[in-house]
């Protein structure tokens, strides 16, 4: 059973404004529709663009 | 000499300062006077630094008059966006939560501008925490567009856009996560450059979304932007996202020649659903480049269809991580609009975020391939002109469309890819400016500035100036 947006946020200690709930739902659904057929493109070949640099972010010379 | 100093660009003022025809004190006073006079009309400033600026101007005057001229920005008065740290000064991010925050150090860009002899006149307003496009701020009031006081200046660097356009700051810096330099630049009729990600250090800039944030110039002319980028660019080990690429002389790279330039046009994404007057101004500018010897090639970038989703998931997730604790403890202290966005940013899963990064990599690869075919891409900066204050919609060819979705459609992809993008004024729709965007390969800022300069020279409306005391 999927949780409502309100439950999801409350589980994280966040209490949304009651007047935000409908807007949040609409915007979340809007984002999901933008995602559309993501599974249809070849993102498996695209690396996840997050770098881990051993020894620190930059090595000072 | 005091007439209309506030309307002059850095490239006009610098020779006057260098040759002692204009005193930095006189210039600073003129800018501050105008800024304070314009404040009730456009509300672009968060804080004025009058006494310190005039004291700083006297020091600078002595330096220049003793023959120690340091370059184009020596003696230029500027105010900066209020998310850039000034040592011992309040930096509010135009928020209630940080209203008393005092930084113990200068941001790297501030330090570099100080060293270049810039005089700081104050801090400029922004959309709260740089997360919005109207600059309608619930804590400090809204900023108005100098071309039409009933219209938004764009955001989030709306104070910078309005101040530079009106003449309350000779130039400025903005920050850009989904278009926050280019949106107000286009809406206010000025030049805005988002450099390559990693070109300018963000140390001492309060973050919105770390992997998408950039700092860049907002100026009256392209050469002013080039000169400013020369000062602020360069590697800084204190910013982990900064890249070690040598700084270049961008002003020298501007010749205005576009002979044999190959311009890429992506019709499917960047010319889809655009206001007809905006489209006309952009296409006429492209034609002016063709008339000067450039060529046009139509290109396809299929994965751009996922750009808006990837941009939203990335920016919302990263921004919400930064504000998570305050959202739990003091949600009532956020403005309603950004509180909603931070709440929304709690919803994507880790899988969503990582898939967004994969999409991002795919888009980057496609752009890299495109730049093997063409030198630059040209697009409208925004599909619409500035909308009316208070509206959450814009008019696109008479149709009401969602404001946020439509404002960031063309600017967001360059934040995802990190590629440099320049907005240059190219015309007007009625009394509201239209901007054109030039996107180039990574670290080729000189190249896009040169194309921007060519457009600037042929722009038939380039001499139009706003007058806030007669506009609406």
Automatic annotation (TrEMBL), chain A:
Protein name: Uncharacterized protein
Organism: Lysinibacillus agricola
TrEMBL record, chain B:
Record domain Amidase: where: 26-449
Pfam families: Amidase
PROSITE patterns in the cross-refs: AMIDASES
SUPFAM superfamilies assigned: Amidase signature (AS) enzymes
PANTHER family with a match to the protein in the record: GLUTAMYL-TRNA(GLN) AMIDOTRANSFERASE SUBUNIT A, MITOCHONDRIAL, TRANSAMIDASE
Protein family: Belongs to the amidase family.
Record-given protein name: Asp-tRNA(Asn)/Glu-tRNA(Gln) amidotransferase GatCAB subunit A
Organism expressing this protein natively: Lysinibacillus agricola
UniProt lineage: Bacteria, Bacillati, Bacillota, Bacilli, Bacillales
């Amino acid at each position: 059973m999927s949780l409502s947006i309100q439950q999801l946020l409350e589980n994280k200690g966040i209490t949304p404004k009651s007047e935000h709930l409908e807007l949040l739902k609409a915007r979340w659904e809007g984002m999901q529709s933008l995602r559309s057929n993501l599974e249809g493109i070849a993102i498996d070949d695209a690396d996840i663009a997050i770098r881990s640099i051993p020894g620190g972010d930059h090595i000072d010379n | 000499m005091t007439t209309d100093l506030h309307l002059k660009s850095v490239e006009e003022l610098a020779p006057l300062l260098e040759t002692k025809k204009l005193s930095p004190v006189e210039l600073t006073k003129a800018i501050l006077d105008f800024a304070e006079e314009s404040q009730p009309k456009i509300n672009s400033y968060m804080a004025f630094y009058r006494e310190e600026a005039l004291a700083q101007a006297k020091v600078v005057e002595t330096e220049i008059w003793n023959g120690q001229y340091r370059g184009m920005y020596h003696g230029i008065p500027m105010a900066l966006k209020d998310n850039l740290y000034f040592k011992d000064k309040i930096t509010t991010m135009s928020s209630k939560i940080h209203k008393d925050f005092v930084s113990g150090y200068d941001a790297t860009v501030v330090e570099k501008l100080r060293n270049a002899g810039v005089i700081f006149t104050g801090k400029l307003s922004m959309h709260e925490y740089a997360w919005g496009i109207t600059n309608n701020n619930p804590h400090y009031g809204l900023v108005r567009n100098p071309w039409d006081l009933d219209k938004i200046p764009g955001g989030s660097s709306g104070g910078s856009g309005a101040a530079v356009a009106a003449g309350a700051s000779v130039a400025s810096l903005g920050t850009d996560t989904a278009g926050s330099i280019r949106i107000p630049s286009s809406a206010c009729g000025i030049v805005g450059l988002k450099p390559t990600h990693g070109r300018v250090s963000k140390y001492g800039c309060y973050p919105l979304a770390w992997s998408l944030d950039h700092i860049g110039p907002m100026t009256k002319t392209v050469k002013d932007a080039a000169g400013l980028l020369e000062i602020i660019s360069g590697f800084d080990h204190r910013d982990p996202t900064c890249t070690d690429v040598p700084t270049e002389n961008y002003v020298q790279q501007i010749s205005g020649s576009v002979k044999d330039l190959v311009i890429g046009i992506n019709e499917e994404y960047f010319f889809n659903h655009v206001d007809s007057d905006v489209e006309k101004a952009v296409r006429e500018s492209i034609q002016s480049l063709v008339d000067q010897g450039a060529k046009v090639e139509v290109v396809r970038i299929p994965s751009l269809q996922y750009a808006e989703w990837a941009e939203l998931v990335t920016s919302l997730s990263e921004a919400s991580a930064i504000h998570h604790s305050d959202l739990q403890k003091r949600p009532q202290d956020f403005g309603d609009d950004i509180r909603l966005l931070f709440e929304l940013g709690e919803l994507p899963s880790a899988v969503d975020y990582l898939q967004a990064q994969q999409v991002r990599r795919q888009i980057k690869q496609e752009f890299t391939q495109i730049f093997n075919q063409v030198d630059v891409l040209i697009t409208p900066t925004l599909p619409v002109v500035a909308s009316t204050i208070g509206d959450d919609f814009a008019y696109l060819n008479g149709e009401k469309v969602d404001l946020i979705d439509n404002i960031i459609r063309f600017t967001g992809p360059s934040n995802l890819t990190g590629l440099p993008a320049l907005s240059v004024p190219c015309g007007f729709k009625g009394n509201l400016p239209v901007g054109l965007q030039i996107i180039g390969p990574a670290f080729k800022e000189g190249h896009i500035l040169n194309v921007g300069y060519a457009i600037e020279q042929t722009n038939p409306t380039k001499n139009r100036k706003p007058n806030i005391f007669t506009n609406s």
